[in-house]
Design a protein that fits this description.
The structure holds two protein chains of two kinds. Chain A is an alpha/beta fold. Chain A has five helices and ten strands. Chain A has one domain. The chains are: A alpha/beta, B alpha+beta.
Chain lengths: 206, 351
């Protein structure tokens, strides 16, 4: 059973090739610009399942291997050594599970008693990090977007969203990071997933 | 999603008619400072609705209670600001806004029946004039989280089914943290709650000092008689008389904060280009409110040298004003006979 290097797990995504899409719209008091980046990733469902940084039971590791979507914790948040999840992760996990049912195996890389959340108290909404297969990614993005609307639509100011997700394709993993207003989240992330899908298709047929 | 039955009940339920009338008259009568009786009525209706299993009515009670909180906090904020208790006023504005934030998920105040839209706009306007720009923000690890409705521990794979923000038995579901670990305290510009304003401390006495300059809020408050008086403002730039800035050398930095030397910047203009607040009062303000003032005319409280916070106080307003672009012909001159507008009142930043 192998282990995953810290920096390739839940920290900053690294890769030797990447693409970056930027869209600017800056007016007085406007939400921050949206930035979306996609880089080559090294995390896979298998690498999460076999990570020695996570104190998981064998049954949980098996479920993660066969899952299509997995919520992953921040393993090292500053000096805090216990894995932590973004705020409201348990609620979003339940929200997605309730809507996809048994058709889409959804898992979380923690044992229930060890679950902890980090609350950053910034007005930005931190969506928990996830790893998912390419096939289910559009559905998950759609559900995450719905959850944001349900939960945060009446906020005092237009919410900003940050999200990192790793998309596992047939050939490789791509780590996608979004930071920007909630109202452009779904469209820009889905565009990026479509680009990943096309690149993956080209690689497969080449 | 907004459920229509609750909205209809808030507007027309017979059980809530007395409370509804009290809330509506509170919106119109500035001398009525309490909604305690109305809140007792609402609580009584809520209890019987829960006993009868009437969830829509219980939810309507929650909506009305939250409307009452938003109103009372807003009126309280106005009163505190009138008395010069600006930080307390700020906190009351924040409470009012938070109540409205929770409310709008379940109830849209169509036709501004309870002045919710007005309160929301007015709170945002007042907050926009406050000098607060930075807030402390704790980073906390929640080790045990419980449902506020049923007290069940929230775990990823087993949950009670209560959704945060939803209303059950006339109570809003939220999460209660049973065990926390403070990781860090951050300084942020966009906190989720804005109560934790950064203040300085007197190094000798250890006492907290409110070093902020509230001159803009103070000016607007002088022009408003009732919390329900409508008003608005806009940021512009205007030309200030050169003589207000003392003896400026040609090679001094220009007071407009462009970063250029004075001789290459505003010296060539009829005045110094500075941020300028124009306030529109819907009703005529008190006669003793000056038509036009510079901030150092109204800011007699805690005048600070620029290097000790004055520049920070106005840095954000400068940014806002900067969005108007730079064209000298667009800027009104704030002297001579050009300030002759009625009801429009102006405050110019000179600090």
């Amino acid at each position: 059973m192998g282990t995953i290097a810290d920096d390739s797990l839940y920290g900053t995504a690294k890769g030797d090739e990447g693409m970056e899409q930027r869209a600017s719209r800056r007016e007085d008091d406007s939400p921050p610009d949206e930035v979306i980046t996609v880089v080559l990733g090294t995390t896979t469902l298998e690498s999460v399942a076999s990570s020695s940084d996570l104190n998981l039971e064998d049954a949980t590791r098996d479920r993660i291997r066969h899952a299509l979507v997995v919520f992953v914790p921040i393993v090292h948040f500053g000096d805090y050594e216990h894995p932590v999840f973004a705020e409201c992760t348990a609620d979003l996990f339940q929200y997605i599970r309730a809507r996809v049912g048994n058709d889409m195996e959804t898992e979380i890389a923690i044992e229930d008693p060890d679950y902890q959340e980090i609350s950053l108290r910034s007005d930005a909404i931190s969506i928990p990090e996830m790893i998912m297969t390419l096939g289910v990614a559009p559905v998950i993005v759609n559900l995450v977007s719905q959850w944001i609307i349900t939960r945060f639509s009446s906020r005092k100011s237009p919410p900003a969203v940050t999200w990192t997700a790793t998309i596992q394709t047939a050939n490789e993993s791509r780590t996608l990071s979004y930071s920007g207003p909630a109202d452009t989240f779904e469209r820009l992330v889905l565009d990026s997933i479509e680009t990943i899908r096309r690149n993956d298709h080209n690689d497969t047929t080449a | 999603m907004i459920q229509q039955p609750e909205v209809d009940l808030v507007r027309s339920s017979i059980q809530l008619s007395a409370a509804r009338a009290a809330l509506q008259s509170f919106g119109l009568n500035p001398n009525q400072h309490s909604l305690d009786d109305a809140c007792r009525d609402i609580e009584s209706v809520r209890e019987s609705a829960v006993q009868m299993g009437d969830q829509p009515l219980a939810k309507a009670c929650w909506c009305m209670e939250t409307i009452a909180i938003a109103m009372v906090q807003y009126v309280n904020a106005f009163s505190l600001m009138k008395r010069g208790k600006y930080y307390d006023g700020w906190c009351a504005l924040e409470r009012s806004q938070n109540a409205i934030w929770h409310l709008l998920r379940h109830y849209q105040d169509e036709g501004d029946m309870f002045s919710i839209e007005f309160i929301q706009r007015s709170c945002a306007q007042f907050q926009g004039l406050y000098p607060y720009r930075w807030f402390t923000s704790p980073e906390v690890v929640a080790q045990e989280i419980y449902c506020d409705i049923c007290d069940m521990r929230i775990l990823p794979r087993s949950q009670c089914g209560h959704e945060v923000g939803e209303i059950y038995d006339g109570r809003m579901c939220s999460r209660r943290v049973g065990k926390i670990d403070l990781v860090a305290v951050a300084l942020v510009a966009n906190p989720r709650q804005k109560f934790s304003v950064v203040f300085i401390k007197d190094e000798q006495t250890g006492e907290q000092i409110d070093h902020y300059d509230y001159c803009l809020v103070e000016y607007v408050m002088r022009g408003l008689v009732s919390p329900w008086d409508d008003w608005s403002y806009e940021w512009r730039k205007a030309l200030h008389p050169h003589e207000r800035y003392g003896k400026l050398g040609r090679n001094d930095l220009c007071p407009c904060e462009s970063g250029l030397k004075y001789k290459y910047c505003c010296k060539r203009l009829p005045g110094i280009v500075r941020p300028h607040l124009r306030v529109h009062f819907a009703d005529n303000p008190p006669a003793d409110l000056p038509q036009f003032v510079f901030t150092d005319d109204i800011s007699t409280r805690n005048p600070l040298p620029v290097e000790n916070g004055g520049s920070i106080t106005f840095s954000s307003t400068l940014l806002r004003a900067g969005a108007w672009g730079w064209s000298p012909s667009r800027y009104p001159r704030l002297f001579g006979d050009e300030v002759t507008r009625d009801v429009v009142h102006e405050a110019a930043l000179t600090s």
